[in-house]
Write a structure and sequence with these properties.
Elements: H1 17-26, E1 37-38, E2 41-42, H2 44-65, H3 67-80, E3 89-91, E4 100-101, E5 110-113, E6 117-118, E7 124-128, E8 133-138, E9 143-148, E10 158-164, E11 176-180, E12 185-192, H4 194-197, H5 200-207, E13 211-214, E14 226-228, E15 234-235, H6 243-252, H7 262-268, H8 283-305, E16 320-321, H9 338-344, E17 364-369, E18 384-388, E19 398-401, E20 403-404, E21 419-421, E22 435-440, E23 449-452, E24 459-466, H10 470-473, E25 483-484
Parallel strand pairs: 3-14, 4-15, 10-11, 22-23
Antiparallel strand pairs: 1-2, 3-5, 5-12, 6-12, 7-10, 7-13, 8-9, 8-12, 16-17, 17-24, 18-22, 18-25, 19-21, 19-24, 20-24
Length: 486
Amino acid sequence: MKPHFAGTRTMKIVMSTAAALVLSTTALWAQGFTPEYEGGYPTAETAEAAFEEFDYQAATQFYIWAYAYLNTLGVDKGMAKFGGSRFANHIFSEQIQPQHIFLTANSEVIYFVSRAINIAEGPVVFEIPARNRGHFWDFGMRALGDTGDIGPDGGNGGKYLIIARDYDGPIPEGYTVYRSPFSDFVMYVGRTFPESEGGVEAAANQAATARWYPLSQADAPPARETVLIGSMPFSQDWPRDAEAFDWLGEVFSTDRAPAEGLAHLGNMRRLGLTPGETWAPDDRARAILDRAAATAEAVVLTMAFQSRLTAKVYPDRQWEIAFVNKDPQFLPGGYEEVEARAGLWHQIIGNFMEQGSSEPGTGQFPLTTYRDSQGNFLNGSNTYRLSMPPAVPVAQFWQLPVYSTTNRALVQTDTGIATKSSTDADLILNTDGSVDIIVGPKEPEGEVNWIKTNPGEGWFTILRLYAPLEPILSRDWVPNDIERLN
């Protein structure tokens, strides 16, 4: 069966009287329903309520388990709207801007991205340029491998071959090979750097030298196919209601689930999802899915912003480790990291095999926070200051982006400015070389480094330290907290 991800289906939910009765029955358990038995046998009413509760819980857990799939499918659908074949290289050629709903991306680099490619149809070659930093991941956001200075090509570029879990055909020499053991679909995101290429246009041109195509065409590779997104609006966001299950129905009608997901898919058969078949929930299922989506979304938001897995980087600061999962494929041994995957991939695009720099001067060291120095959530109604010390020990640059909790992308205001970076030509320095960044709804007096926020809208940041040096990796260098100003 061919993939059919290109169009987002918008399905209006019309709840019939029967469906409303089902929802009422489903809610009985939450209202304190007491099971009744006759001679040890559940009564008919108890059996009906029990099955409705089981299906509701199964749908809720499936939504949470499969949340990362929505992230990947969102990227695929977003790229599809710009045209090009499934093997086109989609390039954010004018850097990420607030109208690009691209989860926690930053405006300092040039991103180039593939669509979701079905490797069950045959191995796929990726030609990756030099001076790149990128990542392969599968439909479930499990990391497959990195490229660039943190990958096997060491920043020199190279050819990568991605093969399916059961591929047993010939593998030519000259490729770095990654096998996808959990999904038949893979994606790639890469970055080139205007700072090192000599400008935005040069970095976009470098990104355009990347291409991907079936191994069967390797003897005569096709012409490079690029799609320039530029400043056109983009969104990878996904539904937060029962329509999310429609998206997951698309995924698992084409992708083979890993062993970890078979129980979920077995339970979802009762609600209309059968692998390899068209997703077709009836009124009863739709009523259950409505309630399950609302519950699961609340759970995922809690995992994302009130996480019980957080780990502070410094004992006396609010900064946290950006990647809370212990394993890049969420399988550290003996269990699957469902909570970490759902919470983290609510707001981050892509997955890294090397989740933090291990060698000075390579990769990045990302620090995240949602809280000010007093531990309160950051809110666009308030004004804050982050003081960056002078001479931050990085080989490339540092950047402070401001993301909205609403869509987890760069905050959108009438200034069009959502980041400040050490590479900004107009960055205002203090006399000692430090930098004060003001984040708030009203422009301060005088010349300041200001990022505007929307009153009432929560925001968070990922302080990106690109190519961190030893003082950062050893935790000897400590950033300041974000302070709320009176």
